[in-house]
Structure formats: C-alpha cells, structure tokens
Design a protein that fits this description.
The protein has helices at about 1-20, 25-35, 40-45, 55-65, 70-80, and strands at about 45-50, 85, 90-95, 100-105, 110-115, 120-125, 125-130, 135-140, 140-150, 155-165, 170, 190, 195-200. It has about 210 residues and is α+β, with helices and mostly antiparallel strands. The longest helix is centred in the N-terminal third of the chain and has 18 residues, at about 1-20. It is elongated.
Length: about 210
Amino acid sequence: IIIILISIVVVVLLLITRFSLSKEEVLNKFQSALINGNSSLLSHCVKMENERVSSKDLQPLIESYNKDETRIKKVVNEISKSGESGNFTLESKKGFLKEKYYININNVTVKFISNVKNVDIEFSNKRFNLIDEAEFDVVPGCYEVIYTYKTDYGDITDSKILNLMENDTIEINVDGNYITLYTNFEDAKVFINGVDTGVIAKDIKNY
C-alpha cells in the first residue's frame, strides 16, 4: 500500500511539474506557436484577461503575425526584458512546487457603426443586424467582416479585412450606385434589377 501511495504521489508531482511552465518555456512555446502558425500550441501558454482561450479563437492572432519571424522575435524579446509588449504581458502564479508562467493577452474592443440602418454583419463567429452601433471584445488579430444591406432592388454586399491590434471603431459605409436615366419615352415604367420602381421615366432623373 505504501509503495502504491508513493507511486501516486510521484505521478501527481510529475504532472504538476509538467504543466507548470517556466518563464523560458512559455516564451519559447509562444514564439514557436506564432512562427509555425500553431494555434493549438499557443492555447497552452496564453490566456486572455486571465481566462483560457480556445485555439479557434486564437487563429486571428496567428494570421495577424503571418509567421513574420523578425516581428515575432522582437515581441518575445521585449516580453523577456520588460515583461510586456503591446497586447501581451508575462504573468505568473504560485504553483505547488514552482511558479507557473503564462502570457496574458489584453483583448481589444471593436465598435461597428454605419451610415445606414439594418445592415447584416458577419464578423468572427458572430452574425448580427447593425441598427445604430455594436461593440465586442475580441482577441487581437486579423478578421474579415462581411456586410449585406438589403434593398427593394437587390442586396449590396461587400467585405473588408480588419487588423485589430488596438481598440478601433469600424464604419460600415454602404455605397449604393446611382443611375441617371435618359429616354424619349417619358411615360415608360422604370424597372431596376427586374423590380418595378413604381415611378415613370419623366418623374425620375437620378435614382
């Protein structure tokens, strides 16, 4: 029985030691994860606002650094020397046998506004209808936003790439196309994209 208890204690101590990363181990894993684009490895050495982050949610951060070794090594160097760099801070907490280190990521706040109401937005894993404004806290990184504005004469859809490394306000400008109508038939009905506008040619100049 004593041998079994000793074996259990040894195994527990080994597990604790294994998952308690030193400062050097954390920095090495962090650098390796960004350089190799490995979000799974990154999730084991970082937290956001001191909470666990899934590898899926860390993908935009991976894409933002785009395996740029020079940029990544500069960030790691700064963290090693001063304990922080941009959105990253080296943190530690006392473990059973030794200090456990991790890199804390400060989230960024993105606010969406638009020049029109009722724009359908796809951003990260979110879908929402933008009426006035919307605000989210996200992992810093590279994101795509897709927006659609529905009109009686067709949908206006566009997208843009956002590199969110600090708090930002994103204005969604929906640009519809105007047409100028010239015709010799002033009483002709006007159709746009196959839809009857309800007006005749003489009553429309720019639309």
